[in-house]
Specification:
There is one protein chain. By secondary structure, this protein is of the alpha+beta class. The protein has one domain: Mitochondrial biogenesis AIM24 (Double-stranded beta-helix, 4-Layer Sandwich), CATH 3.60.160. The protein is 18% helix and 40% strand. The chain contains six helices and 19 strands. A six-stranded antiparallel beta sheet has the order 5-6-3-10-13-8. It has a six-stranded antiparallel beta sheet with strand order 11-12-9-16-19-14. It is globular, with a radius of gyration of 21 Å. The C terminus is likely disordered.
Length: 267
């Protein structure tokens, strides 16, 4: 039997998705500020400190402040929004993805109760799910791992929803199996996964390969979720082609950047 609220859901769309949560009377879903899309009449919205989980409530005001403080450490808002069905029948509330990509549904009860995720991935969850922090075990992984020393940790036995860029692939690694991944493509993984980094060998690879200096090394057993388009990669391309920043790339031009230099526009 679940301790967290049981919620039903449906994900709509392909590239720009939203998730519709169906709430029974007195059921609650918590969401990130700014993720709300729409809701039926009969749902009450309330801004709360932290995540509203049992862990944050047990210590009273101090517990709530600690819960909110954890979210600040991972770059999130101190507050979350709780949506509760106060009507007699079923009601629905929807949350939208912030950019093109996919919404991932995690049933924490089926995944061992804990998921480690990159910052900014969390979208919404059933009330009772704890949204805390996870420190990287190795200092080098935290410094060079692409997502920093602190990551988000989701704990509980309810449903949680994350959003990531591009296409999402779920892989299950058997014990001892290793997968090397671009550091920015790691979305989430089970805590049984050994997450480390590896320096890319060869001076030409890291000087001219355009792939950064490190791989994320994921060693099983456990499940991992990867994204094909990290938001940082998308943002860098937008900046690269932004005329306001003085960059102009001629699509299909034989000379490309050299042509821009010749005609006085620079690279």
């Amino acid at each position: 039997m679940r301790k967290n609220h049981e919620i039903d859901y449906k994900i709509y769309g392909e590239e720009l998705q939203f998730v519709e949560i169906e709430l029974d009377p007195n059921e609650t879903v918590i969401g990130e500020p700014g993720g709300f899309m729409m809701m039926d009449d009969g749902i009450e919205m309330q801004t709360i400190f932290g995540d509203g989980s049992q862990q944050s409530q047990q210590g009273g005001l101090l517990g709530k402040l600690l819960s909110a403080g954890k979210r600040v450490l991972v770059g999130e808002n101190m507050f979350m929004t709780a949506f509760t069905n106060t009507a007699q029948g079923k009601r629905r509330v929807s949350f939208a993805a912030p950019y093109t990509g996919k919404i991932i549904a995690f049933d924490l009860q089926q995944l061992g109760g804990t998921i480690i995720a990159q910052k900014d991935a969390f979208l919404c969850a059933a009330k009772g799910v704890s949204v805390g922090i996870a420190f990287q075990k190795r200092l080098g992984t935290g410094i060079f791992g692409g997502e920093g020393f602190i990551m988000e940790k989701l704990e509980g036995d309810g449903m949680a929803f994350m959003h990531a860029g591009g296409y999402i692939v779920e892989k299950e690694l058997q014990a001892g199996v290793v997968l090397k991944v671009d550091t920015g493509c790691v979305v989430a993984y089970q805590p049984s996964i050994d997450f480390d980094i590896e320096f890319i060998r060869g001076i030409r690879n890291w000087m001219f390969g355009g792939e950064g200096l490190f791989f994320a090394v994921m060693r099983g057993p456990g499940k991992i979720w990867l994204q094909s388009l990290p938001i940082s990669r998308l943002a860098s391309r937008i900046i690269q082609y932004s005329p306001q920043l003085g960059h102009r790339r001629e699509e299909g031009s034989v000379l490309g950047g050299l042509g821009n230099l010749i005609d006085g526009d620079g690279f």
